[in-house]
Amino acid sequence: MNPVLLETQPCADGNAIGVATLNNPAVLNALTLEMIERLDAQLDDWARDDRIVCVLLKGTGDRAFCAGGDVRSLRAALVEGPQADPHPFTTRLFAAEYTLDYRIHTYEKPLIVWGHGIVMGGGLGLMAGARYRVLTPQSRLAMPEISIGLYPDVGASWFLPRLPGRLGLFLALTGAALTAEDALFTGLGDYILHQGQLSELTARLTEGRWSPDADRRHAQVGAWLAAMETHSAEPAPIIARLDSVRRLMRLPSLNGIAQAFAENGFEDRWLAEAAHNFLAGSPTTAALCWAIFPRARHLSLAEVFRLELILSVNLCARPDFAEGVRALLVDKDRTPNWCRGLADIDYAWIDSLFRSPWPRNAHPLKELEHVAGSTGRRQQ
């Protein structure tokens, strides 16, 4: 089975649109290295092809756009393969994924992501950077890495701190999910359409008359999507919870937040589940998230991805990631044996995760700004 379906569909005016479909439905379209590299290479080709006026990225099936990365394969490479520092597979995987995410963030042509169903982890990394992010009423967005001993990467160090009311830190620490309405309110999504409107969208893109002006094409896509949006969005549930989130996240220490989560009997089910996720999650992930946000605050987008590659390679070499994936996805006993508790976190050890395993001039993403299609639109 081809894990990424790639096609061009001709338009009535002689142009064409590129359509990429993540095709790994058995694991909710989780991203493998092969999928990442194929998709990135095709987006590069379409960026250079003057005939392609727009790109549509979607997922196979009714359950998910993309549930994240294929972390089971990553764990297997770390546990069963040869040991090295930095690990070559980890480096290749994350460098390829972050290059793809950066390309999407800076893509010149209209790029639409159809974010139906589950949009988590690496899936949210694909969607967050797109110019046109379409949700459906069934969309659920989350960065649940704390449950597997990783951390919200794929550019989350860039987009989560920009959410209102310190919500980004809350989502990083708890893995809590947002609805489509929440995504519109927070700026992680742009439109809500029904899943059945996907064929209508494709028809509009292929039957419309595209402007010869590249900037004008963006206006056309925005107008077509707005005209299709008939869903009456309910008030975002996160609005009523935002003050509680803000009060929790403004506590001056991570231990204080942990105490508040442990002692507060939340009546709101969403908040209660978030508290449970935090208390059961990796303390190392929590401490790393706490450390990342202030450090990434003034970084450019490219600098964020370079930092995340350092953190991801270093963190995967530590025991929590392999243990978290084992407990959640391999043995499925849901009883991870984390390497340390929150009270035992050594922040000098957390600081060591920020040290690059490569000299500055040998960082795998040192030339990230020069990927094809990059405009610098979101780099500053």
Description:
- This protein has 380 residues and is an alpha/beta fold.
- The protein has a single domain (4-370), classed as Alpha-Beta Complex (2-enoyl-CoA Hydratase, Chain A, domain 1).
- The protein has 16 helices and ten strands.
- It has helices spanning 33-48, 71-80, 88-105, 122-128, 156-159, 167-174, 180-186, 198-207, 214-228, 237-249, 254-263, 269-280, 283-296, 301-316, 319-330, 347-352; strands at residues 4-10, 16-22, 52-59, 64-66, 111-115, 118-120, 132-135, 140-142, 178-179, 191-192.
- The strands form two sheets. Strands 1-2-3-5-7-10 form a six-stranded mixed beta sheet, sandwiched between helices. A four-stranded mixed beta sheet has the order 4-6-8-9.
- Helix 1 (33-48) packs parallel to helix 3, helix 3 (88-105) packs parallel to helix 4 (122-128) and helix 3 (88-105) packs antiparallel against helix 14.
- The longest helix is centred in the first third of the chain and has 18 residues, at 88-105.
- The protein is globular.
Helices and strands in order:
Blueprint: E1 4-10, E2 16-22, H1 33-48, E3 52-59, E4 64-66, H2 71-80, H3 88-105, E5 111-115, E6 118-120, H4 122-128, E7 132-135, E8 140-142, H5 156-159, H6 167-174, E9 178-179, H7 180-186, E10 191-192, H8 198-207, H9 214-228, H10 237-249, H11 254-263, H12 269-280, H13 283-296, H14 301-316, H15 319-330, H16 347-352
Parallel strand pairs: 2-3, 3-5, 4-6, 5-7, 6-8, 7-10
Antiparallel strand pairs: 1-2, 8-9
Helix pairs in contact: 1-3, 2-15, 3-4, 3-14
